[in-house]
Amino acid sequence: MTRVTIPFEHAITLSDAIQEAEAEAEAETVDEEILAFQFENPHLVGEYSPSAGTPVEEYLRNFEARYGTAPQITGVVVARDVDPNEAARGRTEKPIPVRAPKFVAPPARALDGTMAETAPQTMEVSSAPDWRPNVMTGDLRNTGSTRTLVQTYHWSDGSSSDQTPLGFGLEFGVELWNRDSGVLGARPNCQDLAGQPYLDYKDRSWASNYGWSWTVADNPNGGPIAPASIGAYADYNDLSDDCGRNSMTVGIRYPQALLQNSAGGFLRIEIEAPAGILPSSVAAGVVQPVSDEFCTTPVGSLYSLTDCMGVYAGSWPSSAGPQFRLTLNEDRAWQSPALCWTSAAKGEEPSVRTPCPENQLRLAGWGGNYAGELGVGSSDVPVSAASPIPGGGLAGLTFAGVSSSNTAYTNCAILTEDAYCWGYGSDGQLGNGSWVDSVSPVAVDDGGALAGRAVTQIETTFMGTCAIADGAPFCWGSSNYTGGGYSATPVAIDISGALAGKTVTDIAPHDLGVCVIADFAPYCWGYAYVGLLGNGTTGWTYQASPVPVDMTGALSGKQVSDIVAGTDFVCAIAEYRAYCWGDNNYGELGNGSTVDSAVPIAVGGPLGDLNVTSLSGGYVMCAVAEGDAYCWGRGSDGLLGTGVAYPRTGTSSHELLPRKVDDGGVLLGKTVTHIATGDVHGCVLADGQPFCWGENRDGALGNAVPANTLAWSPVAIDTTGGPLEGIFAVGLTVGGGSTIVAYPK
User: Fold this and answer.
1) In the 8-state DSSP scheme, what is residue 401?
2) pLDDT at 225
3) 419 inside domain
4) Whose CA is closest to 65, among 315, 276, 270?
5) DSSP letter at 107?
6) Which of 220, 456, 525, 533 has the fewest CB atoms lying closer than 10 Å?
7) What integer pLDDT is reported at residue 376 of this predicted model?
8) CB neighbours (10 Å) of residue 91?
9) 303 within a domain of the structure (yes/no)
10) Phi, psi (5° rounding) for residue 704?
11) Which domain holds residue 14?
């Protein structure tokens, strides 16, 4: 199969293009699989792919926010069996007649300001002017239901893309691969049940990237770009890719056509992938010169279906070297928090890591503030915030990530690569060496176990806090988490046993211990209790160091990507399905029973057939699957949000299988991207806005319902006049009775 673009007779809107394509498919005029819709604007070219995971409305909203315009759709990209000789000759497709009116988009917003923020003001050049960019930057972003990799390139001080020799183009590649103890490892599900490799694995859902969305943008102060002038294209899955690597290249055949202004040349490339993609260990970018000579040879034409999209890496006629690399997040690709990498000089790998300008987060909160968990600089008992309030003590800080939901009264966030916590601290949860509460953020001690390490994730629970730094786990607070005694500063968890040589990518503390994901497998430590270790053991046995969770039953042969914990149960995502273990008194394991399980079991009900992309645990368990929210477990406190008024006792007081959160009221027609559940309430972000349900204790639901009453269905949080008014929120955490929302700076 190869990708073929069929043009429309004139440019139309994306919504019209989808309708036209559906009409053509119904009439069987276009009967191939539709991969993407191509757009061509002045200064903007690329493709929108529905399979990348972003709904049309969200994609258009993000597009307008980034570029100040909308895509002019000029064609539809389909998958087609093409004869190699025909591909080499370059068959011309007949334009599709359209009924929709011609669309001319507003001019794109200038990107000079973006460059001023993402690139150093003074750019040092370490070698003579040539074709290579002086500065490269890269960042990984969470954008609702997708992850976006952004690369920017800036030429200055005499260097320019037009110094690329005629006959050569430039490719800006993206490579994703999994790493096992420093060695390239197998891609998820690369083998069938018999252990044989899938020869067509790149066409399977877990490996396919030919449906990712991408955009190329230049400096609007230069000349307009379009495929006709610079020859923009996408190349998917290089022939050299094996089960350890998946690659995509966005290239320009004619970099000589990129015009520069007085500030130099600029190019920005975005590649958008589904949010549910399994985490990779490494994301890398490479800039290399390429030649189309190979593709015009008889041998080269044979590669055109899979690799050669008009260019191919050839010999480089210069002593400047054939390529240089941009290596991004080596710890947790496609995951938050997002950091930017900036090269200090030409040809050098970026080494400066800071929160990305477009991913710098402010925090706003409302609800309970017994121990100062809102971080507003004061502690009032009770606090009943009628609507979201500014972060108070947080208002002057810009964060890269925030802890997720819990039943605790402590919250934490990441500032660049350091951690800050606030709220309840009598068990050492704040990690700053003290045993007292703090009403404002305090820095977690980074002079001991965390010295010289970059924190990439932090999570809290009732009596402790855990974090990941440089791919290793650290905890502080109760001995339930540290593997030893109580500690008010971070303690390095023993990784000499089951975790030896492995990279930790997710962490989830609960009331009695901790679980992590390392190299796509779960490990736990702490008390076994009702099966919290997931290895078949129960009772009050204390396990001080990580042990593997059982992978011979429900998780056999699967790659586990995410893990969360409730009070005394644990759930994980493996290949878009949910699995749980531990206490099941109220159906928290979601398998239709109330029998505890000491090993992972599959969550049933509707989630057995849906793609699960996130989980959240507190006293109940909740999930996001294909844009909707689902919850299960105890319903009597209103924590499920299903619209059912559950009784206090009896079998009808809980849900043994996942049930959809009520989407017939304020959530009607909205897409859920985040979910969080805590002590007395639960919340979601849908279309960037917060909606909550449960008990309105201390203003947990804002002013949506009277104080101390239950909302069995989601209610809209009033953001009028507050920091969230008109803002598209991107992060959510629910604590004991408080809610904190993260939004772009």
Assistant:
1) E
2) 56
3) no
4) 270
5) P
6) 220
7) 80
8) 10
9) yes
10) -70, -30
11) 2-358
How wide is the angle at C-alpha 206 spanned by C-alphas 200 and 207, nearest 5°? Answer: 50
Fill in the amino acid letter for 214. W
pTM comes to: 0.69
* Enclosing H/E stretch for 521: strand 521-529
CA distance 99 to 343: 48
∠ CA 701-590-594 to the nearest 5 degrees? 105
Strands 672-677 and 472-477: unpaired
Whole-number pLDDT of residue 704: 74
- The tokens 């309970």 sit on which residue? 368
Nearest to 221, CA basis, from 361, 336, 107: 107
Instruction: Please give the pLDDT value at position 585.
Output: 94
Residues 6+ apart with CB under 8 A from 58: 144, 145, 671, 687
Q: Is residue 298 part of a domain?
A: yes
Q: Is residue 8 part of a domain?
A: yes
Q: Are 612 and 605 in contact (CB under 8 A)?
A: no
Across the chain, which has 745 residues, the per-10-residue mean pLDDT values are 80 92 78 84 84 78 80 86 48 80 80 36 44 68 60 75 72 53 39 56 52 74 56 64 61 72 70 53 52 46 37 35 38 42 53 55 83 80 53 66 76 84 94 94 93 88 91 94 95 95 90 92 96 96 96 92 92 91 96 97 94 89 92 93 92 93 93 88 90 90 83 91 78 86 77
Structure tokens at 519: 């190299």
Q: Which residues of 442-480 are buried (b: 16+ CB within 10 A; e: fewer)?
A: bebbbeebbeebbbbbbbbbbbbbbbbbbbbbbbbbbbb
Strands, E assignment, 292-349: 324-327, 339-342
How many domains are there within the chain? 1
Per-residue b or e along 130-142, where b marks 16 or more CB atoms closer than 10 Å to that residue's CB? bbbbbbbbbbbbb
Closest alpha carbon to 713 in 656, 617, 638: 638
Q: Which long-range contacts (CB under 8 A, 24 or more apart) does 642-649 make?
A: 642/712, 642/713, 643/712, 643/713, 644/712, 645/710, 645/712, 646/712
Cβ pair 230, 257 in contact under 8 A: yes
First to last CA, the chain: 44
Model pLDDT, residue 2: 64
Which pair of structure tokens corresponds to residue 246?
């998946």
DSSP, collapsed to helix, strand or coil, labels residue 354 as strand
Alpha carbon 91 to its chain's center: 38
Query: How crowded is residue 396: how many other Cβ atoms within 10 Å of its Cβ?
Result: 9
